[in-house]
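Case study: Os08g0519750 protein.
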Amino acid sequence: KEDIFPPCCITVILNIGHVLALRRLSRMWRTMAERHKAQKRTIDDAKLLFLQRHPTAAAATATAIALSAPDAATPPPAAVALECEIRAWRGALETWLSAQRAYARALAAWARRCLGIGGAGAGGTAAAALPLAFAVCMEWGHAVDAASEARVMDGLDFFVAGVGSVCSGVATGMEGMAGRVLCAGMAAVTGAMAEFADASADGYDALVSAVAAGAPGRRKEEPTCGPQVS
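Here is what the predicted structure looks like once written out:
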């Protein structure tokens, strides 16, 4: 009994599905980069306003972020809520990136099993020699690993530390300094996030371009689906 979907048809379906997914992920990261860049511009403008109104707060900002008083008074509820929100944001981003990498690595492992390529020998197989759908699966993992989110996580930790310093009461009596601390933290986060999103989008764009460039040459070698009309 013949298969309902011949292997060549499955390959075509995989190709289409992968390219669509990669393009959508690229658009998602590019949109995120644009939004974070706009946020950073707004925050930078706010920082300038704080500098103009409170020029003496500049030197105190770094000190407030570096110090923390464990015996400070109970912090205001709004500051506590902001700190919790930042921690939740960090956790959600970390979870999403881990899931994205796990999915891409699972696809790569599946492709290696289908092709009979072991983990150690996978690097010796040229991508051009592989069926396009499987090559995409194997290269996807490299794309998600290419951009590091370390600066984003550091920025979020910096932001949490800044909020914590304000909550601890170190900034008591320093008019305007709390706003500068928050602006500095938000600027660090949005700037790092914009860079990371741009790098991620570039990686997906490069992968889509590689797929598009490799597809024409492969079509001559790969069989077509269904009956051929001469």
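For the exam, be able to explain this: Residues 7-53 form the longest helix (47 residues).
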